[in-house]
Design goal:
Elements (H helix, E strand, L loop, with lengths): L7 H14 L4 H16 L10 H10 L9 E6 L2 E5 L5 H19 L4
Antiparallel strand pairs: 1-2
InterPro entries: Mal/L-sulf/L-lact_DH-like_ah (IPR043144), Mal/L-sulf/L-lact_DH-like_NADP (IPR043143), Mal/L-sulfo/L-lacto_DH-like_sf (IPR036111), Malate/L-lactate_DH-like (IPR003767)
Protein name: Ldh family oxidoreductase
Keywords: Oxidoreductase
Length: about 110
């Protein structure tokens, strides 16, 4: 087997287009591709493009909602709940991050 080197941007483009072709919408594909490329850049390949077939398989099989629209609910002053809408974690984490940080700033702690 030969080795192929591509830039992180090329890797992102590959992951994004592959996810789009297999049923993800823009927002979900971008979040998942971004997370994989962050891992590749950090040399944590087990969480990088290695995971792309798993992401695609999840959408193709219907186990994962490729068009998920995660929602944030503030349950208490320092409790934030994110409903991921059966989608991939990266988009839910992205959407929930800001409200979690805000709660932490307001209360000194948040979950």
């Amino acid at each position: 087997m030969s080795e192929v080197n591509i830039t992180l941007q090329e890797a992102y483009d590959l992951a994004f287009s592959c996810l789009m072709q297999h049923g993800c919408n823009d927002e979900n594909a971008a979040a998942a591709a971004h997370r994989m490329i962050q891992a590749e850049g950090d040399k944590c390949h087990a969480h990088g493009l290695f995971r792309l077939p798993w992401y695609v398989g999840g959408v193709k099989s219907g186990r994962v909602n490729g068009s998920a629209q995660p929602r944030v609910n503030k349950l208490a002053s320092s409790v934030v709940k994110v409903d991921g809408d059966n989608g991939f974690a990266p988009l839910a984490q992205k959407i929930g991050h800001g409200p979690l940080v805000d709660c932490t700033r307001e209360n000194g702690i948040a979950v």
